[in-house]
Design goal:
about 130 residues; alpha/beta; Rossmann fold; four-stranded parallel sheet; Phospholipase/carboxylesterase; AB_hydrolase_fold
């Protein structure tokens, strides 16, 4: 958790600087596995930094504090139904929590494990094209 907190701070600072330097442009973010975990952690604290977020195979083993700033944010979570690293119940719990915060949450599942499936990439491309 201390490592996640440090990485979250660094990523938040990077994204704030990026958003400030590119005012008026959409910020799309995508993270896979541990990258998705860090991205989710940033999202929990600073949802205003993003226009669209893709979390691929995230594992968030805690329930975050409520975050009203997630209302209306567009999020896509992807996962494998047989993922031994990021079990589906954890992904579903995160998707449910995000939806309860008012985020426009989509969940795309494939029948594999922790690998990235071709259909998953297609779903991500469709989601990002809507930006």
């Amino acid at each position: 958790m201390p490592d996640l907190a440090a990485r979250t701070q660094r990523m938040t600072a990077f994204l704030r600087a990026h958003r400030d330097a590119n005012a008026g442009r959409a910020v799309l973010a995508l993270g896979y596995s541990n990258g998705a975990n860090i991205l989710a952690s940033v999202l929990f604290g600073a949802p205003e930094l993003f226009d669209r977020v893709v979390l691929m195979h995230p594992l968030i083993p805690w329930t975050p504090a409520d975050q009203p700033g997630l209302k209306g944010r567009q999020l896509l979570l992807t996962a494998g139904r047989r993922d031994p690293i990021c079990p589906l119940p954890r992904t579903q719990a995160l998707a449910d929590w995000l939806a309860a915060q008012g985020a426009r949450t989509e969940l795309a599942l494939h029948d594999g494990g922790h690998e990235i499936a071709p259909a998953e990439l297609g779903r991500i491309a469709d989601f990002l094209r809507r930006a």
